[in-house]
Write a structure and sequence with these properties.
Blueprint (H helix, E strand, L loop, with lengths): L10 H14 L6 H23 L3 H8 L7 H7 L2 E6 L11 E8 L2 E8 L5 H6 L7 H16 L4 E7 L6 H5 L2 H12 L6 E10 H5 L6 E5 L3 E3 L3 H8 L6 H8 L3 H6 L5 E3 L10 H20 L3 H13 L14
Parallel strand pairs: 3-4, 4-5, 5-6, 5-7, 6-8
Antiparallel strand pairs: 1-2, 2-3
Helix pairs in contact: 1-2, 3-11, 6-8, 10-11
Length: 325
């Protein structure tokens, strides 16, 4: 597999990384070379921090879509133990865009539901680029209901551009199944933790996004529509996607400020794609903490809290028109 193309704002970082790599390859470095290595490492960390602290919303979208960014299967390998995959929706087929199964997080058994995009062409075709059909959402819901039956918490990893919009998916009830998932996830009486690890696209993400604790990675985004889709509607052309990204307010900071998510999970300096293991460690800590807190909530309060959490999202004002009592 060829190396991913660098993002435009990453080019100065890659130049320094190349200089550092060339110096570190020298078999017998001199004192001057060792000092240069130390200096470049310091400059590199400073540059990464400066660049990534100033990313605009469109640049964050590009990071969220980065080919080298950890995908669900990477986290399954690095964060969880003893993953046993469960297949099929008992009605139509096994949608590979959503992976479900039993797993262990430390010493805690969980049900894992994860959207998998794939990294190379073969994986992307197998997993339909992470865009699920109705049977994928039906599979996810049935496994969550199974988890509740056995008193297991549910963890959902969200990473999709959206639900698959094809004719077959619509014929098999795509919109109905997502709506059903929203209703039934609100009723599942076991703790649910949802994490947006990359793209959180529209109803495709929301179909597994109703939880007691919802978090987002620092350079992920969660939106009602893609920037390109929004630009096509408002400005009649996808070339205005950067303008739409600013208008949508879907970055992690916006989401936390608006009360859409409960937590921002920090990424390693320079983004998750630069250090999978550190990102996995950060995710592990967040999931462990969230499940510990939720385990202390009595079951009879869990659903009420979940309901209130989503009811209070959004702000509106009521007023009486002039002349009316």
């Amino acid at each position: 597999m060829s190396a991913p193309l660098p993002l435009p704002f990453e080019r100065p970082i890659l130049e320094l990384e190349k200089q550092l790599s060339d110096l570190e390859k020298q078999p017998d470095p001199t004192a001057v070379t060792r000092e240069s290595i130390r200096r470049i490492r310091t400059e590199l960390n400073k540059l990464k921090r400066e660049v990534y602290e100033k990313l605009n919303p469109w640049e964050i979208v590009q990071v969220a879509r980065h080919d080298a960014r950890p995908k669900a299967l990477d986290y399954i390998e690095l964060v969880f133990d003893e993953f046993v995959e469960l297949h099929g929706d008992k009605a139509y087929g096994d949608d590979r865009a959503i992976l479900t199964g039993f797993a262990k997080l430390g010493d805690r058994k969980v049900m894992l539901v994860a959207q998998q995009k794939g990294r190379n062409l073969r994986e992307r075709l197998e997993h339909n680029y992470g865009m699920a059909h109705p049977e994928g959402y039906r599979k996810a819901l049935s496994k969550m209901q199974m988890a509740a039956k056995f008193n297991l918490p549910v963890i959902c990893l969200i990473d999709t551009a959206g639900a698959y919009p094809g004719v077959g998916a619509e014929e098999r009830g795509q919109a109905y199944q997502i709506a059903l998932n929203l209703r039934e996830m609100a009723r599942i009486d076991t703790p649910i933790v949802c994490v947006v690890i990359g793209e959180g696209g529209s109803g495709g993400a929301l179909g597994i996004g109703i939880g007691d604790h919802v978090s987002v990675l620092q350079f992920a985004y969660y939106s009602v529509i893609s920037p390109e889709g929004c630009a096509g509607i408002l400005w009649k052309h996808a070339k205005h996607a950067d303008k739409a990204a600013h208008a949508l307010r879907f970055t992690s900071k916006d989401l936390l400020e608006l009360g859409i998510v409960d937590e921002i999970i920090s990424e390693p300096i320079g983004g998750a794609h630069r250090n999978h293991r550190q990102m996995a460690t950060n995710l592990h800590a967040s999931l462990t903490s969230a499940l510990k807190d939720l385990s202390e909530v009595p079951k009879d309060q869990l659903l009420d809290r979940r309901y209130e959490k989503f009811r209070k999202i959004g702000v509106f004002e009521e007023s009486v028109a002039v002349g009316q009592s």
